[in-house]
Design a protein that fits this description.
The protein is an alpha/beta fold. The chain is built from ten helices and ten strands. It has helices at 45-67, 86-103, 112-118, 166-176, 183-193, 214-230, 234-264, 280-293, 302-305, 309-320; strands spanning 5-10, 15-22, 25-33, 76-82, 107-111, 134-139, 144-151, 154-160, 269-273, 296-298. It starts with a strand and ends in a 17-residue tail after the last helix. Bound molecules: 5'-O-[(R)-(carboxyoxy)(hydroxy)phosphoryl]adenosine and zinc ion.
């Protein structure tokens, strides 16, 4: 098979990342994480754009150098068009346009949420592909989506959150119990030593195949307020157990709606995607669900779950196989699915 090299560029939130893929195989992947937001307890959009500006050329340069390729070997460039932070998206899109113009390469704009799902195709044998149809649960900092993947070219959104995303629900809870930003991984670590059945949080009422996390977050807030009135050291004393119990509620709720979706859409494979799929309890219970149901389970390696350019290159590769829409590529912070 002849080579087909795609340069993927990701800058939608707080990771500046570049990758080169040969078809669906990752040749190089370089990601610069922005630590500047830590002291603010959340991503500061203006600081994110500035950090992308200083990181993006070194990151792309390093991805090309470590691939051993020359820019002229590339068959196309793919960049995240949205959704994401407008200033951050602008940095990636403007640079990708310049490179496409200078190197005379085709350019495609990638939907970040499609890219999370298509991370499943990286390094797989696409020829005898038995993954589809797949029901994918995408859980990230900004989105929670149920996606029916008919093929890499046909993705159908069948459910999503009506308010907070799962990642936000975990990050906000972590903040409430005094854990640093980004809270998800810290909550995960605390949960490993805590007792998940110590406290119980009632799960939100079912709403078809959609999610809502705001009630769960509010119930934690009231719970902490009430308990702290009785014992002012309650949070410090029970931090591990609160973390474990709350994370358990989020995981149970994610899987409850997912199982409902599976009843409606019998599929060949179930998949987990997005940054929250790094969560150890979610990964374990999702895998167990697949085993119980006798369905193939796909969870990409961690480096392809959190924001990265390999998934953008992967989604871009599929777009580059199709007729490419002519016209000016404009970033869209609210790009629809
Ligand atoms: O997909 P992602 O890297 O960025 C977005 O597109 O949002 O997801 C980031 C989210 C954050 O909310 C972060 O706390 C969460 O993923 N996360 C985790 C873990 N690692 C990252 N949540 C729970 N457990 C983890 N181990
Ligand atoms: Zn993401």
């Amino acid at each position: 098979m002849t080579d087909f090299f795609t340069l993927g560029i990701e800058s939608s939130c707080d990771e500046t990342s570049a990758a080169i893929l040969n078809h669906n195989q990752v040749v190089s992947l370089v990601t610069a994480t922005q630590e500047v937001h830590e002291k603010f307890g959340g991503v500061v959009p203006e600081l994110a754009s500035r950090a992308h500006q200083s990181n993006i050329i070194p990151v792309i340069d390093q991805a090309i150098k470590s691939s051993g390729l020359n820019p002229h070997d590339l068959n196309g460039i793919a960049v995240t068009q949205g959704p994401g932070l407008m200033g951050s998206l602008h940095v990636g899109v403007a640079l990708a346009k310049s490179l496409a113009l200078a190197w005379e390469k085709p350019l495609v704009g990638v939907n970040h949420m499609h890219a999370h799902v298509l991370a499943h195709c990286i390094d797989k044998n696409l020829k005898d592909n038995d993954m589809f149809p797949m029901l994918c649960l995408t859980v990230s900092g900004g989105h929670t989506q149920l996606v029916l993947v008919h093929s890499p070219f046909h993705l159908e959104l069948v459910g999503s959150t009506i308010d907070d995303a799962a990642g936000e629900a975990l990050d906000k809870a972590a903040k409430l119990i005094g854990l640093p930003y980004p809270g998800g991984p810290h909550l995960d670590a605390k949960s490993k030593v805590g007792d998940k059945s110590k406290f119980s949080f009632s799960l939100p009422h079912p709403m078809g195949l959609n999610y809502s996390f705001s009630g769960l977050k509010t119930s934690l807030l009231y719970f902490l307020r009430d308990q702290s009135k009785v014992n002012e050291n309650f949070i410090e004393e029970f931090q591990d157990d609160i973390a474990a119990s709350y994370q358990n509620a989020v995981v149970k709720y994610l899987l409850r709606v997912f199982k409902k979706a599976l009843e409606k859409y019998p599929v060949r494979c179930i998949g987990l995607a997005g940054g929250v799929s790094a969560n150890s309890q979610l990964r374990a219970e999702f895998t167990q669900l697949g085993t119980e149901l006798g369905i193939q389970t796909c969870i990409p390696p961690l480096s392809y779950c959190t924001d990265n350019a390999a998934m953008v290159g992967m989604a871009g590769y599929f777009l580059l196989q199709q007729p490419i829409a002519k016209g000016n590529l404009i970033p869209n912070a609210r790009l629809p699915f």
